[in-house]
Write a structure and sequence with these properties.
By secondary structure, the protein is an alpha+beta fold. It contains 31 helices and 61 strands. Strand 20 and strand 21 form a beta hairpin. Helix 11 runs parallel beside helix 13. The longest helix is centred in the C-terminal third of the chain and has 30 residues. GO terms for molecular function: structural molecule activity.
Length: 1245
């Protein structure tokens, strides 16, 4: 039996705990006066309640209502509503600490036990005390209701356990019935029975404990009571109708026992105490069968979940939620049959017919309290292999009976049993057994005889089936595909602690499951994707289409091999998936029942069809399902299918954004008119301008009243008529700047002169008139100013007025005002949707273009502004009676209207609705004509974006400009947290992956991506150029580091090796041999950096701390350096030791130096030192150094960490540190976090 910890919290001392009956919640009352509400499934603190003054000792959930009750040392009982998160009311009456509180399972009662030697029963609906139970003569430590009968049990420090009969109280408080003869007498004095009443009577007083009793509780179904006391005993009592007696005592605790409860499902008792243990007792034998210890925490309380197989215990530093047995039924699916074990009996379940049959009993395997762990079925020999975790692991081979009728057979062949952590069939007549103690895999035949055995290539925790003659070996850091016959590793994937492996039916794909990660890979262990879950992953199965269906504690989900995943449905309780067929999912629940549930596979089939580009299937799903939701819309946008997302959306704002994204101007116009927001019109104008739809741009500018943009639009298109109209509008608006701008665009110097006169800029007006040859106008200006020409000094004109610059006049007026559009075909989906709309007759002139035209009507409708001289803006006083404008472009006030005569036809630009509709229809018709056969192109995926999709490497993500995903990848792979030193590398990679070419001086530069696979013609398969070439690093940078080391430039050498180490993060290689060399280079850099740091620190300490300096010199000699460099380290260390008269140490260094065959001069010096030292092999200074015990040097404290001592590593450079440095920044690479979880650096795709 083992304790399976499901949740653990850290807090102040926990004095009381309570499970919620339905939700995954647990309440903890703390000694500091706080109450915590935890979600033990998510591992999160949901709420804190802080109203008690002093420790809170009692806590309980109501079985059905959203209530809980608490009692504390402030003598108060508080009832809380966890939905409103507040205290509803307080019950006062106790005169001392309240020890426990519990709700009655049926009646609205609360029972409380107190140090005032009383037990009180309260009605929480009337908020009053309905009974006080007196009789104990010391603190009452615990009082509880019986789950079914009208009984109460209490435990007290007076060394007794009392059982109380509350049937009279129940009758008194139940709903009134017809009056009987006794009723008037019994109701005369309802208060007379508060003390010593007949409502509650003592039924039994149980005496047997030698010290105070801390806890007593009823068995849920049997007439039994368990109690725990300060005499270190757990006592079992039995009751009858007339008496109660002690059955036996359980001894084993060596301090006070705090709590004791019955196991709700087995004949077991659990207890915990101040001896820091939880003990499990056999109820029949009254012996301890399991003990679970904590090092420093005393236990104070213990409870069982009312429905699930869960327990919780509170201790000095928090609480722990645990199970005593695995609830996962051992099972295996073969074709349409599910073999599983329930209640130690092997069943076979036909998934097609739902027929279920018991085959044989496996009760003799392992302990009766430990369920079988795994089951492996051999269809060829009709045999099963069952394993159990009892006694370190055991297995047994069972041949299945041929005749399934009659009583269950229970094989008893001891020769078919053996020890081993895991056992599974690997061939028709062979099975493999893993011995984790000796790290050995044995291959046995069906007689349980070993045919071969071999050592595992790495410390293995689990083995899994991987096809004929192959195994998957799970290690702490990776999963290994191992060939049994050739005894070699085929491939390895860095996925640690894999608990379950699920193969697809054709064995082409595999899912590797650990506690929080799913890794999908192909049959050669090439990773396809990895999915992280915050909730524990329980099981999974493959769909026929290649989608992996899996479940967590509270969801059934799906995962596509490309990495997309989502939720199919929620779960109330965890289940184990066995097989999926269409919409039917076959499962096993925790009670071992095989059943099926219906799921909706539409979402993942839709995504799978999109990924596989099966567009007909996509259309079929769209037309025949109710696939909706923001998640689907966001997914379609992300994957580049906004035209499909548009089909699902009804919200105008979302439709507008999607229409712009896929370039559908017709729907964008329709939704912009519905929204009628300035921001929407601006966006529509920008997109229409990009596509060259002149009319829609014009309409958008009119709606936003962007007069300057309109004027410039008319200038660039040569629409002089409309420019003239804009000039009139500016005059009506009283905007002199806009008026001057339009006059300038038109080249109308007479209008400019008039404007300058109107704004009292007479000098400028005179200059304009004079320079343009308006002599009479110039004289009038002079006269008005009271000046003569003699008073004015003008610069000498070098050109005539006819040579002054003027805006060019349009040579040809285009019949179609829209600019040329690119002619691209409609996408598959747009064409399909348009055809569908046509068939349904659901097309209108604005929402979507009509594809049946009359050419004459279109030419008639194209008469926009500027096509003839009679068109105008509908301005009063200049209108010819025909209005054709942009709706609500201008809202003139009444004064301006009256000033120009107040024509009824014009009304500024506030045109009649029917005119506005005509304009909309005209623009829509024009747009429809252009898009009948073609649509504007949507931007494709840039080549740099393709890089992020093709590669998981950080360097390729940086080259594409996706710095954030690159940083996430580096953090996930090697725990990088400090990116500041890596900034130059990021920038250089980004800049080196593209080149800019300037075609013309007036044109913007063209940018091109540089590929490392230029022979690949398909841009979708391209990858960026390699900036940090591995061979260049080895041949150039590494040699420079060696050279700096040899020449004694230690700081420069350290900088060089750190630069190499960081460059490795962005190195890309193409084969496994180079990848292995990259790992070796990381080790080389680490050793040199550690050695250089030691030497530089030693040089600063030589005079001040000679002992510490000599230790560092000694550690330096254990760095894995090149032989010439190691000679330097040994030579330096031997000299230092000799100077400090550590002759024994100096002799050892000299001997090691001579073993490396140094140059003659160095060898002679070493021999001299050795000969002197051998005369007196003593050390003056005792060093923290043992050369015979392998060690690593802590890179922060520079102290040895000897083999077998705990240590933490840097996930990138693998530098060693003492455990207390976990979470700090690595001092070697200066970028990774010590002890961070990481999957390992990837340098190869």
């Amino acid at each position: 039996m083992q304790m399976l910890t499901k949740f653990e919290s850290k807090s102040n001392r926990v004095k009381g705990i309570a499970f919620h009956p339905k939700r995954p919640w647990i309440l903890a009352s703390l000694h500091n006066g706080s109450i915590q509400l935890w979600d033990y499934r998510m591992g999160t603190l949901l709420e804190r309640f802080d109203e008690h003054d002093g420790p809170v000792r009692g806590i309980a959930f109501h079985p059905t209502q959203p209530l809980f009750v608490s009692g504390g040392d402030d003598y108060k009982i508080k009832v809380w509503n966890y939905k409103t998160r507040r205290c509803l009311f307080t019950l006062s009456g106790h005169l001392d600490y309240v020890r426990t509180v519990f709700f009655h399972p049926e009646h609205p009662w609360i029972i409380s036990a107190s140090d005032d030697q009383t037990i009180r029963i309260w009605n929480w609906q009337s908020r009053s005390c309905i009974a006080i139970l007196t009789g104990h003569n010391h603190y009452v430590m615990c009082a509880q209701f019986h789950p079914k009968n009208d009984l109460v049990v209490s435990a007290s420090m007076d060394q007794t356990v009392r059982v109380w009969d509350i049937s009279g109280l129940r009758k008194k408080n139940q709903a009134p019935t017809a009056m009987t003869f006794e009723d008037p007498f019994s109701r005369q004095n309802p208060q007379s029975d508060l003390f010593g009443s007949t409502d509650v009577m003592v039924k039994y007083v149980l005496e047997g404990h030698d010290h105070g009793v801390n806890w007593a509780s009823f068995h849920p179904t049997l007439p039994l009571i368990v109690s725990a006391g300060d005499d270190r005993q757990v006592k079992l009592w039995r009751m009858s109708e007339t008496k109660a007696w002690e059955v036996d005592s359980c001894r084993g605790h060596f301090n006070n026992v705090s709590s004791a409860i019955f196991h709700p499902r087995h004949e077991l008792m659990l207890s915990d105490g101040e001896d820091k243990t939880i003990r499990v007792w056999d109820m029949a034998k009254r012996t301890a069968i399991a003990t679970f210890r904590r090092d420093h925490d005393r236990f104070w309380t213990l409870t069982a979940h009312p429905e699930l197989n869960l327990f919780a215990a509170g201790h000095d530093n928090g609480l722990i939620v645990f199970k005593l047995e695995r609830e996962r039924p051992a099972h295996q699916v073969h074709q349409n049959q599910l073999y599983y074990i329930k209640d130690k009996i092997l069943h076979v379940h036909d998934l097609a017919s739902s027929a279920d049959q018991e085959i044989l009993s496996v009760r003799k395997l392992g302990s009766q309290y430990v369920n079988p762990r795994t089951l492996s079925y051999n269809p060829a020999e009709r045999a099963v292999l069952v394993t159990s975790s009892h006694d370190g692991g055991m297995y047994e081979l069972y041949p299945l009976p041929k005749n399934l009728s009659g009583s269950l057979k229970e094989p008893a062949d001891e020769s078919k049993r053996g020890t081993g952590h895991s056992a599974l069939f690997i061939a028709r007549n062979r099975f493999a057994v893993l011995d984790t103690v000796n790290q050995q895999i044995q291959i046995r035949d069906l007689t349980n005889t070993v045919t071969k055995s071999f050592k595992t290539p790495a410390p293995t925790t689990e083995i899994f089936y991987a096809g004929a003659n192959s195994l998957l070996l799970s290690t702490a850091a990776s999963i290994i595909l191992y060939d049994i016959q050739q005894r070699r590793t085929i491939s390895e994937l860095p996925v640690g602690s894999v608990k379950y492996v699920v193969w697809s039916q054709d064995m082409s794909m595999v899912a590797l499951l650990n506690k929080h990660t799913i890794t999908l890979a192909d049959k050669n262990l090439k990773q396809l994707c990895q999915i992280h879950e915050t909730i524990r992953i329980k099981s999974g199965t493959w769909d026929d289409s290649g989608v992996f269906i899996y479940c967590t504690l509270n969801h059934i989900k799906y995962a596509l091999s490309q990495g997309d995943n989502g939720i199919i449905r929620t779960l109330e309780q965890p289940v184990y998936l066995t097989r999926i067929k269409g919409k039917t999912l076959f499962i096993l629940d925790r009670d071992g029942n095989s059943r099926s549930i219906t799921i909706d596979p539409t979402e993942y089939r839709f995504k799978l069809a999109l990924v596989k580009k099966q567009y007909e299937e996509v259309l079929h799903i769209i037309r025949n399902s109710n696939l909706v939701g923001q998640a689907i819309i966001g997914y379609l946008q992300k994957k580049g299918y906004p035209e499909i997302a548009l089909h699902f959306v009804k919200d105008h704002q979302t439709r507008f954004e999607l229409a712009l994204e896929c370039g559908n101007l017709d729907i964008a116009l329709e939704t912009a008119q519905a929204l009628d927001k300035t921001e929407s019109w601006k966006k529509l104008g920008t997109e229409a301008l990009r596509q060259g739809n002149y009319k829609m741009v014009e309409m958008a500018y009119q709606r936003t009243k962007d007069y300057d943009a309109l004027s410039f639009l008319y200038l660039t298109s040569g629409n002089e008529t409309n420019l003239r109209q804009m000039l009139k509008i500016a005059e009506l608006r009283g905007d002199p700047m806009s008026r001057f701008q339009n006059a300038l665009y038109l080249g109308d110097y007479q209008e400019r002169t008039r404007l300058l006169k109107d704004v009292d800029q007479l000098p400028l007006a005179y200059l304009t008139a004079k320079s343009r040859g308006l002599t009479e106008e110039a004289e009038n200006i002079l006269a008005a100013a009271g000046k003569s020409e003699e008073d004015i000094k003008l610069p000498t004109a070098t050109t005539s007025s006819t040579d002054l610059p003027t805006p060019p006049k349009p040579v040809i007026q285009l019949e179609d005002p829209n600019w040329p559009l690119l002619t691209v075909s409609k996408s598959f989906f747009e064409g399909a949707f348009a055809k569908e709309h046509q068939q349904n007759g659901a097309i209108n002139s604005v929402a979507a273009p009509s594809f049946g035209y009359d050419d004459g009507d279109i030419e008639e409708a194209s008469g926009a502004w500027g096509d003839d001289d009679n068109d105008d803006f509908g301005i009063p006083g200049i209108s010819s009676g025909k209005t054709n404008g942009g709706g609500d472009l201008l809202d003139l006030d009444g004064g301006a209207e009256n000033a120009l005569g107040g024509d009824e036809e014009g009304g500024g630009w506030d045109l009649d609705d029917d005119i506005k509709a005509d304009l909309d229809a005209e623009i829509s018709q024009a747009a429809a004509q252009e898009t009948a056969e073609f649509v504007a192109p949507t931007p494709g995926t840039s080549e740099s974006q393709v890089w992020t999709q093709n590669s998981p490497l950080a360097a390729d993500h940086i080259a594409s400009g996706s710095f954030e995903s690159a940083m996430q990848a580096l953090n996930r792979q090697v725990g990088i947290v400090n990116f500041e030193p890596l900034k130059p590398y990021f920038l250089s990679i980004y800049q080196a992956s593209r080149v800019s070419v300037s075609p013309l001086a007036s044109s913007p530069a063209l940018s091109f991506c540089l590929r490392r696979n230029p022979e690949e013609s398909n841009s979708r398969a391209s990858l960026p150029a390699i900036v940090y070439d591995f061979q260049n690093i080895v041949s150039t940078q590494l040699q420079a580091g060696y050279k700096a080391f040899s020449s004694g430039r230690l700081a420069a050498a350290e900088t060089q090796f750190k630069s190499i180490l960081r460059s490795i993060l962005f190195t890309v290689v193409t084969n496994q041999a180079d990848a292995d060399e990259v790992a070796q280079l990381i080790d080389i850099c680490r050793e040199y950096i550690v050695g250089l740091t030691l030497e530089q620190n030693r040089r600063t300490l030589t005079s001040s701390e000679p002992k510490r300096a000599l230790e560092m010199a000694a550690y330096f000699t254990h760095c894995q350096l090149q032989t010439p460099h190691l000679q330097l380290a040994l030579r330096q260390a031997s000299k230092q030791a000799f100077k400090l008269k550590n002759f024994s140490t100096a002799s050892q260094f000299s001997r090691r130096l001579l073993e490396l065959a140094p140059p003659k001069a160095v060898a002679d010096e070493a021999r001299q030192i050795q000969s002197v030292c051998e005369r007196n092999l003593n050390d003056e200074i005792e060093l923290n150094y043992d050369q015979y015990n392998p060690f690593a040097v802590c890179s922060l404290t520079f102290e040895p960490i000897y083999k077998g001592s705990p240590k933490m590593d840097c996930p990138f450079c693998h530098a060693s540190y003492k455990p207390e440095n976990e979470g700090k920044l690595c001092t070697v690479c200066q970028v990774a976090q010590i002890g961070a979880n990481a999957t390992g650096l990837r340098v190869m795709i």
